[in-house]
């Protein structure tokens, strides 16, 4: 089982933070730069039912007419339907379990239902036509099979392939979900009381469900293994960034802490390891930062960007790389990493900003030598060619879903620390409006046989291992993860592409970045973590 899992598994987030299709994740799909650049344009400008872009006056007229009243009614009905959907409950946490293998925390595959409401441009179209055009993870024949089998439903009811979508239709697709593994490092609790949880987040672990991660996230692991539930996110860290992470246990405390961060009452100090011998004097970088693309989560220094300031001070040099203290006084996306790139001392193993995609000088002094469109195109080409892990797990890059720009902002690649405390609400918030729909019960019938898949190499298993079951994974509640793979907990689905393909485990170097949130200090409180091993001045990276 050590090579079953993908180095990169990409999923797409719909408007309510869920996807409709289980995406085959290896080999990587070819992404289209035009979709990234154009995403969100229609929504920003406004579009008519025929897809024509409307001006402001036309848009107001359209909304004031009879169709506009119908649309408003449909939106109210949609909200009512949405409010009835369950959020993250105990059943969600218990739908599968973990095991440890090759130093990685892995999730047993499980059945899951992705949901989304019908988009305006889909109204009046055949459901099969929409899926064949908008979701290219599978051919139209596969979606037709799912519709006929009743695993792709409308308002949780089976429909015909010729069904035409209506405004408040809730689409649901049952998938056999495989998650990406993360490093099997423990979450260290630093402080826990009735109002606050403070912890040291391991690298490689996303804060909350987003993209291709769900159970392999901080909030799920805290709920399943530490019995810490109903937590409210106060801020967040990049998936690859380790260090201090704070959660509120009450709405009042979460709002208070968010207010302190937003009003810059919290002093934050990070530590990182950068290339070269960093200057001995204190360096203050005040270069403005602009988001090049929310879609793929990439920024650069630009006069058009927002003001931001970071103070850097060298802590030591081992003859090759330097350990430095970083104090961001603002909270722009990737602020520390972008400023270090600009100064010419990028984080040693930063998969995004320490790359020649930014030019021969890797973006030093803001010298990239290409337009934003060319940079986006090159980033996508590198990702496709190398199964590149530079794009964070929270980015929304995909050829299968034209996600609007403002939707991409919610789950784009995270910040080292954001000014806005909780850009992405915790899945455990009281609203109970999560995108997750009920899990598939064990009694759900196995869909009819799919068309014969392409022949696989002899090394790839095409039959389920002994002891596997076509049922929802064994539930374990708050038990610790299995220390070895347990075949009795493996589910197998004959229609699941990932069940038939073997993948390499990700390499540890792809799951670590030498950037750590070290100390936070606010009005009347302060917390700090132990320093990682790589932060020792005399530390030298071992060759693989």
UniProtKB/TrEMBL annotation:
GO terms, molecular function: pseudouridine synthase activity; RNA binding
Keyword Isomerase among record annotations: yes
Gene3D superfamilies assigned: Pseudouridine synthase (3.30.2350.10)
Keywords on record: Isomerase, mRNA processing, Phosphoprotein, RNA-binding
Membrane-spanning ranges: none
N-terminal signal peptide: none
One protein family per Pfam: PseudoU_synth_2
Annotated region described as Disordered, given as residue ranges: 37-71, 409-470
Pro residues bias: start-end ranges: 444-464
Active-site annotation: 238
CDD domains per record: PseudoU_synth_ScRIB2
Biased composition (Basic and acidic residues): 57-71
Top-level taxon of origin: Eukaryota
Entry's family note: Belongs to the pseudouridine synthase RluA family.
The protein's name in its UniProt record: Pseudouridylate synthase RPUSD2
């Amino acid at each position: 089982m050590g090579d079953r899992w993908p180095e990169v598994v990409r999923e797409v987030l719909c408007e309510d933070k869920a996807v409709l299709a289980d995406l085959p994740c290896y080999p990587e799909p070819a992404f289209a730069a035009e979709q990234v650049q154009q995403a969100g344009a229609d929504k920003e400008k406004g579009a008519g039912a025929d897809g024509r872009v409307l001006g402001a006056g036309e848009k107001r007229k359209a909304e004031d007419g009879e169709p506009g009243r119908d649309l408003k009614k449909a939106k109210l009905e949609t909200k009512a339907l949405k409010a009835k959907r369950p959020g993250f409950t105990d059943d969600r946490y218990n739908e599968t379990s973990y095991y440890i293998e090759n130093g990685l925390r892995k999730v047993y595959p499980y059945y899951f239902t992705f949901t989304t409401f019908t988009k305006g441009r889909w109204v009046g179209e055949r459901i099969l036509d929409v899926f064949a055009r908008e979701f290219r993870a599978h051919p139209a024949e596969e979606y037709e099979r799912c519709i006929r089998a009743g695993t792709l439903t409308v308002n949780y009811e089976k429909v015909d392939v010729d069904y035409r979508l209506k405004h408040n239709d809730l689409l649901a697709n049952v998938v056999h979900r495989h998650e990406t593994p993360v490093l099997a490092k423990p979450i260290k609790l630093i402080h826990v009381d009735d109002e606050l949880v403070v912890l040291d987040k391991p690298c490689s672990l996303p804060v909350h469900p987003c993209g291709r991660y769900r159970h392999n996230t901080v909030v799920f692991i805290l709920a399943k293994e530490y019995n810490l539930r109903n937590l409210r996110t106060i801020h967040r860290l990049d998936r690859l960034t380790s260090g201090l992470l704070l959660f509120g246990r009450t709405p009042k405390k979460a709002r208070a802490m968010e207010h302190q961060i937003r009003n810059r009452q919290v002093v934050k100090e990070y530590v990182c390891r950068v290339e070269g011998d960093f200057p001995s004097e204190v360096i203050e970088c005040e270069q403005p930062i602009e988001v090049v693309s929310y879609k793929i989560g990439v920024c650069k220094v630009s006069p058009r960007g927002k003001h931001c300031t970071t103070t850097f001070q060298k802590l030591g040099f081992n003859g090759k790389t330097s350990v430095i203290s970083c104090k961001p006084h603002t909270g722009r996306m990737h602020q520390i990493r972008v400023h270090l790139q600009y100064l010419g001392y990028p984080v040693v193993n930063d998969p995004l900003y320490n790359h020649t995609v930014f030019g021969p000088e890797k973006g030093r002094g803001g010298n990239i030598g290409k337009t934003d469109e060319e940079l986006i195109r090159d980033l996508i080409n590198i990702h496709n060619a190398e199964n590149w892990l530079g794009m964070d797990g929270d980015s929304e890059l995909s050829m299968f879903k034209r996600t609007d720009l403002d939707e991409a902002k919610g789950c784009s690649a995270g910040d080292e620390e954001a000014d806005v405390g909780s850009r992405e609400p915790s899945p455990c918030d009281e609203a109970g409006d999560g995108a997750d729909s009920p899990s598939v019960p064990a009694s759900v019938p196995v869909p009819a046989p799919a068309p014969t898949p392409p022949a696989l190499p002899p090394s790839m298993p095409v039959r389920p291992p002994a002891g596997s079951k076509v049922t929802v994974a064994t539930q374990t509640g708050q038990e610790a993860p299995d220390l070895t793979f347990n075949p009795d907990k493996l589910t197998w689905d004959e229609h699941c592409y990932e069940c038939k393909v073997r993948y390499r485990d990700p390499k540890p170097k792809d799951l670590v970045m030498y950037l750590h949130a070290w100390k936070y200090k606010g009005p009347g409180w302060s917390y700090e973590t132990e320093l990682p091993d790589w932060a020792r001045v005399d530390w030298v990276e071992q060759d693989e």
